[in-house]
Amino acid sequence: MAKILIVEPVGGHLASFGAELLRAGMGVQQTSCGVTAMEALRAEHFDTVVLWDQLPVLSVVDCLELLKTLPGGAPPVLVVGTSPERKLECFRLGCDDFAELPKDEPELLFRLYNLLRRSSVRSSAALSGSLADISLVDVIQMLSAARKSGRLAIDVADAEGFLLFDDGQIIHAMKAEREGEEALLGMLRVTREGGSFRFEALDLIPAAPRTIEKRTDHLLLALAGRLDEES
Q1: Contact 96, 76 (CB under 8 A)
Q2: Residue 225, class by beta-carbon neighbours within 10 Å (0-12 exposed, 13-18 middle, 19+ buried)?
Q3: Confidence (pTM)
């Protein structure tokens, strides 16, 4: 069961959101200021933290700075608030997502589920699943956000391919006789119909020619454009 810590002042806007999380089967703890939030985070593990952007005593900026000092590292953080001018500062300090109110609860839940998926990637040395349940693009983006290093194997239609990641960036791709961007493009094509994946985290990346130089986010955007042109 996922454990969520919600931090907002008494009488805030997230009480009904917390109740919705409980109905979804999650464990929820609510606290009213950053001081008690940091005490809770030092005492037990939480899978995600939801921070209101206007907190008493310790500001949301203070909380984001202190989260970096936790011995086990900071859990994924969703900041919720009404100050869009604070969004850039929160991202600069390490928050994973920022939701501006008013937002309906289904959207907040969707954002939270995305953070929980990223959290599961961060905590797993090996990860596997069906590409009918999650797209290859989503898998790549989660590994990139978690700055993982390792090998992602793709198995679809009796064919295999793989990607090598170094600190969250794809550095090599191979499928059949293809390498680099063309290999990844082929994987994106065929996995639209399903398939499976397995990621293995590695401390030492296998020696291989670097066939991809673009940043992963730029690469995915470019290949998405090519796929759109084909359809």
Answers
A1: yes
A2: exposed
A3: 0.53
Percent of the chain at pLDDT exceeding 70: 91
Every domain of the chain and the residues it spans: 3-122, 126-230
Question: 150-159: per-residue pLDDT in tens?
Answer: 899 999 876 7
SS3 category, 129: strand
Q: Exposed, middle or buried: residue 14 (CB in 10 Å: 0-12, 13-18, 19+)?
A: buried
Across the chain, how many H-helices and E-strands are there?
8, 11
Phi-psi region of 172 (alpha: psi -120 to 50; beta: other; left: phi over 0): beta
CA distance linking residue 97 with residue 113, whole number of Å: 12
Report whether pLDDT(23) > 90: no
Per-residue confidence (pLDDT) for residue 182, from 0 to 100: 94
Buried b (16+ CB within 10 A) or exposed e, 123-162: eeeebeeebeeeebeebbbbbbbbebbbbbebbbeeeebb
Report the candidate in 33, 65, 29 with the shortest Cα–Cα distance to residue 45: 29
Q: Which residue has the tokens 């952007």?
A: 53
* Cα maximum dimension of the chain: 61
Q: What is the DSSP letter of 112?
A: H
Check whether domain 3-122 has CATH 3.40.50.300, yes or no:
no
Q: Which residue has the higher pLDDT, 25 or 142?
A: 142
The pLDDT confidence band at residue 197, using thresholds 50, 70 and 90, is very high
